[in-house]
Inverse folding.
């Protein structure tokens, strides 16, 4: 109010005076104006107050509201008088009538779309927003109730049973996402939310036109949104949908549904491995997502929080999110509690389905191969045979002269052999697919889907408790996923691979040699798959859990087993398990590789004549090259050393190579002392072979084996010595003693046993023995 403005009943009480000397004078003026009005209105003419002259002078609702507001403040001077209580009661009654009449007038103006006049009437009600305890009339609350009553009738479709039936429909076919004969119609949900958005935008637009960005519209908008969400949408339709979904999940599976026709199959949106068997798990996250996006994209009024030029705009969405979280919280909590169990069940189903498909594919492949066997009856009875344990029985084809009938039978047996050999080859090749990267990718994607659902629930979450609870659920899901993957897939896959590796026996396969042991090659590929899976899991852990701050971690340098969280301990469990399987596989592989080496020696027909050459023409055939069995042995070992060097840790590989070298030396010594006879001419070839082996083991730095071969290089010189007289025989004996004493590897007795493989040993043995032992057998007499 301006200082020089004339005092009237509608403005006098609102005038403020800062000069104490003028206060008494101003009070007298106000009293002279308001006392007669309060006396006429609240004492004398209470029952017929509409006829008072003051209302004829101030007949505009806005002016009248100013008068009532001033009157409410003025009568506070009578607070300690007996008449005050009656005055307050009468004023409250008059205000009730006034507010009711103004709201009725607002309704009329809105029907006429006279928003300017409606806005003026609302301002009149705003004038009555008095902070006086005895004045009980709440004009703002009355205005809120008016707008709610105006809009709630348009929400009736949300409470209709037909709306629920439109969303959760009966299925015609059994398809993905169909649960107990029902499915969630995501398109219909979109339609309903679009209808809701259109309706709310229309109402918000009307409110905006009425209030014209005035701050008074803020409580109206918020009250409307809260009432709609709490009573009609989340507390109404959404709750009915979720309860109905849970009810359907608990029904029995219908038996009359036929599979969906191939030409009509579609991949339903928002359905994945985790929720395809539960409408509840389809509903809760999808409805939450629709709530967030729908209310985020509403056309809220551009409400100003004050009337200054730099007025702050009201941001409705965070407040609305608070309403959504408050009313949806029970569903979020229940969903996050149920999700780990649902996730585990779907993971188990996924792995079991993969394992079942693998077994079925192997059986189908066996049956397809066995179709080509002539004896169909035997094929039918033996299609489930144990391929490895029964394999030896099908190679016994050798025998005496056969009749024509026997020849025909052998043709059939050979056909069976070829079929079973193909099955064996297939099983060996399948070692590398016993653990699946594709399955792991599916599982990680499944967990990622679950995380997206859970973390989507925390978007703009109002409570830190819910967020902490959901983060804990995410950790539990990761740990359960990894434990399930280990126990139900990786462990069984590697155990099956080790079994096949153990049962592989190359000596039973009369086929051309391959310089790589097929099961070991495939086992190493399986190890590589295991390493890649471990890397994928580490990447997933860092990207999804660490970066999103779902788990708290210490820096890598200061982290140990005790300070690691449970997720990291489970990853370490997988890492240690893979290391154990690698060690076990390599231990088995050493035996398998040495079997392959022995088979190579057998196929090369190494015998007494290999080095027992009688002339240089036979040496010419060799042309200075190492023997076939030596070259093939080196090729076998080198191929596996190279393969393993790219696949396993160097420290493990070094142990592996040392063990291979040790076993090879044992095999070579056995071969030398049991089979070989070496002539002085053949010694040249023997030395060539020793040097070839020496160069190979030096190349791969297998120190212990190199030391053995150094000793063999020295011993091999003993085979070159011509012993055509006794002196040379004595010299040979002395060399045997010296080498036995000085080589540091073999004892004199062992050197003696090697030298005894000379082709002329029978003729020189007596002379050598006499040098070594001081006498020969002929020097002994029986007394």
């Amino acid at each position: 109010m301006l200082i020089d403005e004339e005092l009237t009943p509608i403005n006098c009480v609102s005038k403020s005076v800062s000069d104490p000397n003028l206060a008494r004078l101003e009070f007298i003026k106000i009293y002279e104006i308001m006392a007669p009005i309060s006396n006429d209105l609240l004492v004398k003419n209470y029952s017929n107050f509409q006829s008072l002259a003051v209302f004829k002078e101030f007949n505009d609702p806005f002016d009248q509201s100013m008068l009532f507001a001033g009157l409410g403040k003025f009568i506070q001077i009578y607070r300690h008088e007996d008449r005050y209580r009656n005055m307050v009661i009468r004023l409250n009654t008059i205000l009730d009538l006034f507010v009711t009449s103004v709201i009725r007038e607002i309704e009329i103006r809105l029907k006429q779309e006279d928003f300017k006049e409606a806005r003026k009437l609302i301002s009149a009600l705003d004038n009555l927003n008095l902070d006086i305890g005895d004045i009980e009339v709440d004009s703002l609350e009355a205005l809120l109730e008016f707008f709610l009553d105006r809009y709630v009738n348009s929400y009736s479709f949300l409470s209709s049973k037909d709306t629920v039936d439109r969303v959760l429909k009966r299925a015609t076919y059994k398809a993905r996402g169909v649960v107990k004969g029902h499915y969630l119609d995501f398109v219909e949900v979109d339609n309903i939310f679009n209808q809701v958005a259109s309706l709310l935008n229309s109402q918000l637009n009307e409110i905006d036109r009425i209030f014209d960005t005035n701050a008074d519209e803020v409580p109206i908008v918020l009250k409307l949104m809260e009432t709609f969400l709490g009573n009609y949408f989340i507390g109404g339709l959404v709750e009915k949908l979720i309860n109905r979904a849970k009810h359907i999940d608990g029904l029995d599976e219908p038996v009359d549904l036929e599979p969906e026709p191939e030409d009509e199959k579609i991949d339903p949106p928002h359905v994945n491995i985790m929720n395809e068997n539960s409408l509840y798990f389809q509903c809760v996250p999808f409805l939450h997502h629709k709530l967030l996006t729908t209310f985020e994209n509403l056309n809220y009024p551009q409400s100003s929080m004050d009337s200054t030029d730099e007025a702050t705009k009201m941001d409705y969405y965070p407040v609305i999110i608070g309403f959504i979280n408050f009313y949806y919280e029970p569903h979020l909590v229940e969903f996050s509690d149920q999700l780990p169990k649902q996730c585990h069940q779907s993971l188990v189903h996924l792995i079991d389905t993969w394992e079942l498909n693998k077994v079925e594919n192997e059986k189908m492949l066996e049956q397809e191969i066995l179709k080509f066997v002539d004896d169909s009856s035997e094929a039918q009875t033996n299609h489930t045979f144990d391929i490895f344990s029964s394999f030896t029985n099908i190679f016994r084809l050798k025998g005496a002269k056969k009749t024509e009938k026997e020849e025909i039978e052998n043709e059939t047996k050979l056909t069976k052999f070829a079929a079973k050999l193909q099955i064996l080859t297939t099983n060996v090749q399948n070692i590398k697919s016993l653990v699946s990267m594709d399955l792991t990718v599916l599982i990680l994607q499944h967990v990622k889907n679950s995380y997206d659902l859970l973390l989507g629930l925390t978007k703009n979450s109002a409570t830190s408790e819910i967020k902490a609870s959901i983060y804990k659920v995410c950790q539990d899901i990761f740990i359960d996923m990894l434990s399930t993957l280990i126990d139900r897939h990786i462990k069984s896959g590697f155990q099956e691979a080790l079994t096949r590796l153990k049962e592989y026996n190359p000596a039973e396969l009369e086929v051309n040699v391959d310089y790589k042991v097929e099961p070991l090659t495939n086992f190493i590929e399986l190890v590589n798959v295991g390493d890649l899976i471990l890397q994928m899991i580490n990447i997933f852990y860092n990207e999804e859990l660490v970066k999103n701050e779902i788990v708290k971690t210490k820096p890598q340098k200061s982290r140990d087993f005790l300070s690691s969280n449970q997720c990291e301990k489970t990853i370490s469990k997988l890492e240690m398990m893979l290391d154990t399987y690698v060690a076990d596989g390599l231990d088995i592989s050493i035996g398998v590789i040495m079997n392959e080496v022995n088979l190579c020696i057998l196929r090369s027909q190494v015998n007494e004549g290999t080095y027992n050459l009688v002339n240089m023409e036979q040496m010419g055939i060799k042309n200075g090259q190492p023997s076939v069995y030596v070259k093939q042995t080196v090729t076998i070992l080198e191929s596996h050393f190279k393969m393993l060097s790219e696949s396993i840790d160097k420290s493990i590989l070094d142990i592996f190579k040392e063990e291979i070298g040790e076993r090879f030396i044992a095999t070579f010594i056995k071969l030398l002392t049991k089979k070989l006879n070496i002539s002085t001419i053949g010694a040249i070839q023997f030395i060539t072979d020793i040097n070839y082996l020496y160069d190979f083991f030096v190349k791969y730095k297998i120190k212990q084996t190199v030391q053995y071969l150094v000793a063999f290089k020295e011993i091999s010189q003993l085979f070159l010595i011509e012993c055509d007289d006794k002196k040379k025989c004595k010299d040979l004996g002395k060399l045997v003693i010296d080498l036995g004493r000085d080589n540091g590897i073999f004892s004199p007795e062992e050197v003696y046993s090697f030298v005894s493989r000379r082709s002329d040993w029978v003729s020189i043995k007596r002379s050598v023995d006499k040098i070594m032992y001081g006498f020969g057998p002929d020097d002994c007499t029986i007394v």
